[in-house]
Amino acid sequence: xxxQIGATAPDFEAETTEGPIRFHxxxxxxWALLFSHPKDFTPVCTTELGTLARMKxxxxxxxxxxxxxxxxxxxxxNLWGNDIKDVVGIAPNYPMIGDTDLxxxxxxxMLPADTSGGSEGRTAATNATVRTVFVIGPDKKIKLMxxxxxxxxxxxxxxxxxxxxxxxxAKHSVATPANWKQGEDVIIAGSVSNEDxxxxxxxxxxxxxxxxRIVPQPxx
Length: 220
Prior knowledge:
By secondary structure, the chain is α+β, with helices and mostly antiparallel strands. The chain has six helices and eleven strands.
């Protein structure tokens, strides 16, 4: 199955550093950020895991649960956590999935479905495609997919910005323009007629083109 935005995130059971989970039950009524790593004790991933741990309060404020994945066993994840604390100053404060049988990696199309064997003997290079970020909504639908090369650390400020947009546009019939940040003007969605827009925005809107209607960000 090819995953796309709007598809239901595949459910699974897995062992994590915080005990066994069933993914959909673990998400509950929250949003979730699932981000994957090709191998424990790799340099870029070490910085990412620590940075996300430091930023966890920002995700908590938005009702977003964090969960990581690496193909190595949970016991390695725990040891890696000590290194991450040494390097970044904080250890992961969210669960990390152990995907030794590559089940989740294949389920989420990060490795080919016909990949044989488990994690033992595999290198970061052979797992290079296990570098994906998924944002999943309370409805268990995939809202965002980002795939990064091993040499480029992920920008979690950008991921927070996208989550702000996703949560705003899920609540209001708006879209966000390029480089939008929290509090800036937004665009009325094309699905909203001018008649309905007038009811919601009685002060009107800016219209540089007939298909672009710009209003202040809704705050309620």
